[in-house]
Amino acid sequence: MSAPRSAIVTVAFGHSTDHLDYTFTSFGINQGMPLHAFVIGQNLPQQLLAEVQYHLIAPTADFSHPLREVYFRRLELVDQLDVDYVLVVDSYDVLCLQPLPPFAELLGNCAVAACVEHLGSRYVMGQGYTANFLNCGVFFWNVPASREIRREIVARGRSHYRTVADDQFCINEVLQTKYYDQLRILPCQYNYRAYLNKKQRRWPTVTHLDGVMIYHNASCMAEAKNLLRAKSRAHLPELEPDGRPLTAREQFWRRLRLRYQSAQPVAQSLNLLYRAVSPTCSRQRVALSRARGVVQHLADCKSAIQQSATRRYLTQSLRLL
C-alpha cells in the first residue's frame, strides 16, 4: 500500500498573494509536503515563489465579499488536488515553527482535526452550546472522508450571508451538531493564539513560543518571526517542595496568597474598564468603582499579612473574597 499523500494549502486574493513568503512558506520545513496556493483573481502574482505551486481560480459573486469567498471556497478547492490529507491555513498570519507529524497520525480515524478558539465556550445554532468552538485558521482534513461535510458547510455559507467571517459559524454549527463524532480536537500548540510579549484585553499573553507547532496571531507575527528557533517542548518549572504536610493554619495562608495573586490581573482589568467608560455613564462608573474597591481591599489584605496585622482585619478582608 502506498503512503498517504498530503499537502499544505492556502487560498489568497489581492495583497496577500504577493506576500506568501511572510508566513506561508514557513511550512516548507515539512519535507515531502508540497505547498499549494489557490489565487482567486484574474492573474497570478508577478513574483512567483519557487517553493509554492500556484493555481489561478476565477472569482465568483456567490459569497458577496472576496474575503468571505476565500474562507468558504478553500473548503472545496482542496478537492482539485490529488491528495489524501490536507492542512488548510490562513495565508498571512499562520507561522509553522516546527516540523509537523504525518497528517494521517494527527487525524487518526477522524475526518477533520482542529483546535479550540481561545474563548471556546460559545452558543451555536443547532447544538445550542459548545465548549469546543473551533478556530478556522488551521484545519486538517481527510479529503475523501470529509467531502460531504465540507460540501454541506460551503452550501450553508453560500445560501445566507451573516458577516464576512461567518465561515466559523457555519463550520462549527455543522461539525458540532452533526459530525462531532468525526472531529478530533488537537492541542492548542497546533493553532497557538496567545499574544507574544504584548497585552491585549481578553487575550492570554506569553513570553515564549517553546513547544508551539503552529503560531497564529497577526498582531505579534513580526516578533514571532524574529525569535530564535523554538524549543520542541516548553520548560516546566519545579514547584517548591513543602518538605512536610502543612498545618491547617499554613494551608489557610497558602490559599489566601494564591487568591491575592489571582486578583492582581482582575484589578488591572477593572482599572482599564473604568478609564474606558465615559464620565456620562454614571451608573456603570459607580458599579466599577465598587468593584475596584473590593479588589483594592484584597490588595490591602496582602499588605496587612506582610505586616502581621490583627486577625480582626483579616477576617473582615476575607469576607470580600
Distance between the termini: 63 Å
Which H/E pattern describes the elements? EEEHEEHEEEEHHEEEEHHHH
Lateral strand order in the biggest sheet: 3-2-1-4-9-6-10
Low-confidence stretches: 304-310
Return the CATH class of the largest domain.
Alpha Beta
The whole-number mean of residue pLDDT values reads 88
| Beta-strand content bin | 15-25%
The CATH homologous superfamily name of the largest domain equals Spore Coat Polysaccharide Biosynthesis Protein SpsA, Chain A
Radius of gyration: 25 Å
Work out the helicity level: 25-40%
Q: Globular, elongated, flat, extended or rod-shaped: what is the shape?
A: globular
What count of helical segments does DSSP give?
A: 8
SSE topology sketch:
Blueprint: E1 6-12, E2 35-40, E3 52-57, H1 66-77, E4 85-89, E5 94-96, H2 103-107, E6 112-116, E7 122-124, E8 128-130, E9 134-142, H3 147-159, H4 167-178, E10 183-185, E11 195-196, E12 205-206, E13 214-216, H5 221-226, H6 248-276, H7 282-306, H8 311-318
Quick overview of this protein structure:
By secondary structure, this protein is of the alpha/beta class. The chain folds into 2 domains: 6-226, Spore Coat Polysaccharide Biosynthesis Protein SpsA, Chain A, CATH 3.90.550; 248-318. Helix content is 34%, strand content 18%.
Notes on the structure:
- This protein has eight helices and 13 strands.
- The chain has 321 residues and is of the alpha/beta class.
- The strands form four sheets. The chain has a seven-stranded mixed sheet with strand order 3-2-1-4-9-6-10.
- A hairpin with a 3-residue loop joins strand 7 and strand 8.
- The protein starts with 5 loop residues before the first strand and ends with a helix.
- About 2% of the residues have low confidence.
